[in-house]
């Protein structure tokens, strides 16, 4: 119903359409991932695709990329019928996709990854000199100052993301699809990416751009399409739209975007104190603390040592020095096992590789943190497990037909909720969240914020690591700022100011914050 | 939100049929293959469908079944145990030495031999697991080392000779056929399989085996020590090698340092044919029983055809690869069922 009404709002779109979708549908277990979506992408435009998790954005992209085959509907690309069955079909047609999940051959070098599909050859052998020269040029284009000869596994997430983007640039393409390219990038890197995209647009490359950062889409986008529950809600020109209007389209209800701090939370005694933490002999010392009921934000650029410090506190990585106190008493934490026993929990940055058991069910993922609670003498108590998991699925609004579904099929937001559910199942004094809202839509973000307040109000101490400053400012009591592996400053709530925090974060880098 | 619950309800309604199909594809596919093979040989091969032959089959699958139940645990964690064949040899030697020791009364020697076999096997397995975990070495290499060490130890302990003269009561027990249908050693194998199935399905330990095979790092960061469970899996694999050694002694009545050559590969084949994923996290121990049965039925059937020792390895080799190919197709089928 809704989308047909919307189509009539944009009668002028198809004039120079590069890509036309007509009635495209795709089903998954328990979900209509895409339902009768009709959409036109005009030549040379930057088209922004928005929607909550599970709204169907990634499915749509995967259909275009030849990863999924649509169940129904017709697609026309470049005036020819387009029905890709493999990613190669998409490449051949001139469509390049930069996926949200990074697909790198991590043992190979940056240059080999960049030019893997067409390695320069001489006499049938790889011409390494030529390869590295071309790779260096591509890296320069995305502003990445790294030698092309280092293996990809030694890069950080943000750098890897830029390499992925560079890879898409090295081939002539008519349509470039970017699925949340800025999720891990700093504002300076984003600025450079936008520069590249503008240049591509000038060269008549059409762009489909997915992002959850609503502020940035106005900088790059011409038109926006909003999806919700697999259906197309609207396609509009971005000019003249407000964030509030977009958010309303996405969630079907209005939510508070900022100023969401729960003032009534009572901050209690210190629950966790870290003193003189060092990850190696040469690393700087890190000290901080959290009180009961307090949400402490941790800001800093990607690679500033935030994640590493949190992992060291949790015992996930070895620690060279440092003392940890829980409830004022010194504790020994040599492994995650110790950390969990002393009431710490860590929501890792990389939920797929470190947080989830992808092949196992929602239930098995939730109860893994505390099987003792649902077993007796080593025997699992199935019904207790099921009711505990179901209760958490309901409480966190995890969308799934049953707790026995494999989490592999879940959307990013639902997967993140499962990770939270598993720590709620365990129950902890301190919850350390590393980028808990990354790659998650606004609706699910808001749910996670509300959940964190609730936990804080119940007396947990919360450490909230994030690259999204407005979100930190929105929900934290105070923010500590990391740079170059150490804490360069702490800002109380009364002094919260984006500019102040950013300049602290950039202090060591001799860079101007770009916004 | 109403849009989200609508397809969810559809899924539940169609879920029952999907469930049946999924059960067939995931759990019963290999069993169906076994039934088909048995029917095929029953019709075509002379003497296959006789009580005597089935009795024989039950006897012959016992050792591989016991070995593959322990192997299933190890493979589910993402490891491999190449040492079980020669650990079995070492255990047969030790068990036979205990039972033939004239200083030990017969009544005590049999339980002592059982303890000796299981203890030796468990110790070898524990060493495998501990070395793998302590130095983070792939189990393929560690257990390849143990394969050679246990084999050498068996020769040293036995003075390079076979040991005969086991107590008559022990031999009689091995020849016993319960109720005229089930050989005693087959019942031992069934007991081991059932125990293994129970452990994997209903215990916390079993859950950890699957979880570790799925994502070991996630298990570690959930506040557990995967190391402990992995060492336990190897220990159990060694323990089942010890039990298999007792079955070997019951069946062949000799302890031999050259027993069990290649048994580890049969066990791995049974596990893989039974549908357990080689990369861990997915599979079942009942599947391994079915896998072991398929291997033995094929072997016997081919022998009855007169296509004995030369053709057998060719067919078995093809079946192993075919099983994994079918497994890949089955995954695709399951996925398409799920996305209905």
Question: What does the secondary structure layout of this molecule look like, with pairings?
Answer:
The complex is a heterodimer of chains A (515) and B (340).
Chain A: H1 2-7, E1 17-28, E2 31-42, E3 46-51, H2 57-64, E4 72-77, E5 80-81, H3 87-93, E6 95-98, H4 110-114, E7 121-122, E8 125-126, H5 128-141, H6 157-169, E9 175-179, H7 187-202, E10 206-210, H8 214-220, E11 223-228, E12 231-237, H9 243-251, E13 270-278, E14 286-291, E15 295-300, H10 306-313, E16 321-326, E17 329-331, H11 336-341, E18 344-347, H12 351-355, H13 362-367, E19 375-376, E20 379-380, H14 382-395, H15 412-426, E21 430-434, H16 442-457, E22 461-465, H17 469-475, E23 478-483, E24 486-492, H18 498-506
Parallel strand pairs in A: 3-10, 3-11, 6-9, 9-10, 15-22, 15-23, 18-21, 21-22
Antiparallel strand pairs in A: 1-2, 1-4, 4-5, 7-8, 11-12, 13-14, 13-16, 16-17, 19-20, 23-24
Helix pairs in contact in A: 14-15
Chain B: H1 2-44, H2 51-76, H3 84-99, H4 106-135, H5 139-158, H6 168-175, E1 177-178, E2 182-183, H7 184-202, H8 204-214, H9 216-221, H10 226-252, H11 263-273, H12 285-305, H13 312-338
Helix pairs in contact in B: 1-12, 1-13, 2-7, 2-8, 2-10, 2-11, 2-12, 3-4, 3-5, 3-10, 4-5, 4-10, 6-10, 7-8, 7-10, 8-10, 11-12, 11-13
Describe the structure.
- The complex is a heterodimer of chains A (515) and B (340).
- In chain A, 33% of the residues lie in helices and 25% in strands.
- Chain A contains 18 helices and 24 strands.
- Residues 1-13, 253-259 and 508-515 of chain A have low confidence and may be disordered.
- In chain A, helix 14 packs across helix 15 (412-426).
- By secondary structure, chain B is an all-alpha fold.
- Chain B has one domain: ABC transporter involved in vitamin B12 uptake, BtuC (Orthogonal Bundle).
- Chain B has 13 helices and 2 strands.
- Chain B has helices at residues 2-44, 51-76, 84-99, 106-135, 139-158, 168-175, 184-202, 204-214, 216-221, 226-252, 263-273, 285-305, 312-338; strands spanning 177-178, 182-183.
- Chain B has a two-stranded antiparallel ribbon.
- In chain B, strand 1 and strand 2 (182-183) form a beta hairpin.
- In chain B, helix 1 packs parallel to helix 12, helix 3 (84-99) crosses helix 10 and helix 11 (263-273) runs parallel beside helix 13.
- The longest helix of chain B is centred in the N-terminal third of the chain and has 43 residues, at 2-44.
- Classes of the chains: A alpha/beta (515), B mainly alpha (340).
- At the A-B interface, helix 11, helix 12 and strand 20 of A face helix 1, helix 8 and helix 9 of B.
